[in-house]
Design a protein that fits this description.
The protein has 215 residues and is of the alpha/beta class. The chain has a single domain, classed as TIM Barrel. The protein has 9 helices and 8 strands. The chain has an 8-stranded parallel beta barrel with strand order 1-2-3-4-5-6-7-8, surrounded by 6 helices. Strand 2, helix 2 and strand 3 form a beta-alpha-beta unit.
Length: 215
């Protein structure tokens, strides 16, 4: 259930290779890396069931639709299995459903033109949004063909909470994906988020969490 994550701006190729090898060893669901490292991660994990996830419009969500489309298409070409895209936060706060639906539709279509089975998670950056704005984000995700909603980029002003996950799960229902991210650093936190309804956890502390698993 873990997306083993390395999105720091100072990450190097050696760091990404190490991440991929650790993910393969421990059979995590995916690695999540910045788009410049997708080709490298795809090569490293070619013979592994571990997926390659990347981010689009990260971490602000304020890139133009055209820029997000281009980034998503290139990620699909480079070998990404999954894309976590930050929805335009300003548009969510303005309630601009027309813009948001266009953004979601066009980015998904652009990537799936290159790879039909690519999986999409829409990042809502919940610490910056009220409940009405989060509901709009969930409506966009479920209405455009995304597969998951995600709580935050991990660069937000606070860590993910159980209440965040419960709210998303109650909004999107049982048959839509929910990913929790941001400040997941220990096993009790991870298990509480799973219990609240998260099906994926995005964390850079995956090895630390595993080390706390009972023998």
């Amino acid at each position: 259930m873990i997306d083993y994550t390395l999105l720091k701006p100072e990450a190097t190729s050696d760091d990404i290779i190490k991440l991929c090898r650790e993910a393969a060893k421990h059979r995590f669901t995916a690695v999540c890396v910045n788009s410049s490292f997708v080709r490298l991660a795809a090569r490293e994990l070619e013979k592994s069931p571990v997926k390659v996830c990347t981010v689009v419009g990260f971490p602000l969500g304020a890139s133009s639709i055209e820029a997000k489309v281009a980034e998503a298409k290139q990620a699909a070409i480079d070998g990404a299995d999954e894309i976590d895209m930050v929805l335009n936060i300003g548009a969510l706060k303005e309630g601009d459903s027309t813009y948001l639906m266009s953004e979601g539709d066009r980015v998904i279509e652009g990537a799936r033109d290159e790879r039909k089975d690519i999986l999409f998670k829409f990042i809502l950056e919940m610490p910056l949004l009220n409940q009405h704005e989060i509901l709009l984000g969930c409506w966009v995700a479920t209405g455009t063909g995304a597969d998951f909603v995600k709580t935050s980029t991990g660069f937000a002003t606070r860590a993910v909470t159980v209440e965040d996950v419960r709210f998303l799960r109650s909004t999107v229902g049982d048959n839509f994906g929910v990913k929790a991210a941001g400040g997941i650093k220990d096993l009790p936190t991870a298990l509480s988020l799973i219990d609240a309804g998260a099906q994926r956890l995005g964390t850079s502390s995956a090895l630390q969490i595993l080390s706390q698993w009972p023998d």
